[in-house]
Design brief:
Elements (H helix, E strand, L loop, with lengths): L1 H13 L6 H12 L6 H9 L7 H13 L4 E3 L7 E3 L8 E4 L5 E3 L5 H12 L9 E4 L2 H6 L24
Parallel strand pairs: 3-5
Antiparallel strand pairs: 1-2, 3-4
Helix pairs in contact: 1-2, 2-3, 2-4, 3-4
């Protein structure tokens, strides 16, 4: 995880971005959490160490990271956007309809499928989004069902279908 933080920091510096202690704290919290947090979750993680930091700093840092291609922004029609700094390119996710947890899915065979879609449909594919929905092991063990319809739909129907990878 530390190497991913250093990688992001190096790329930001190469692009001429200032790396304030607050921005560094946001990058660390984003990468070291190993999950897909919202901006608000990131703000709460770093606000104890930087009580004078504003939410705007978190949002501006996320915008900078997104523009630099260092985070993948997962947009949801309902609920906050979530951010993935560990794999900043388009890839599938599995989303828990019980607690909202998001995990990365590694599918080696998806790459050729994107090319097949491009060839079959005549599109130049710039990105894709593929999410799977269900209950995570913790929610299954707890006997929970879909408990967060305002965040995500049990069927995934409330998700934005807009391609989000640049």
């Amino acid at each position: 995880m530390a190497s991913r933080v250093n990688e992001i920091v190096g790329r930001l510096r190469e692009r001429g971005h200032r790396l304030t202690p607050q921005r560094y704290a946001v990058v660390r919290a984003l990468v070291e959490g190993g999950e897909h947090p919202s901006a608000e979750q990131l703000f709460h993680r770093v606000s104890d160490a930087y009580p004078m930091m504003s939410r705007a700093t978190v949002y501006k840092t996320l915008d900078t990271l997104n523009a630099a291609g260092e985070v993948l922004e997962l947009e949801f029609r309902e609920g906050p956007n979530r951010y993935d700094a560990n794999i900043p390119s388009a890839h599938p996710h599995v989303v828990c309809t019980g607690c909202g947890r998001i995990d990365d899915v590694r599918l080696d065979r998806l790459g050729p499928s994107v090319q097949e879609v491009a060839e079959q449909m005549g599109y130049q594919i710039s990105g894709y989004r593929l999410d799977f929905y269900g209950l995570c092991p913790t929610c299954l063990a707890d006997g929970r069902g879909c408990r967060h319809p305002s965040r995500i739909s049990c069927t995934g129907a409330t998700l934005s279908s807009r391609a989000i990878h640049r």
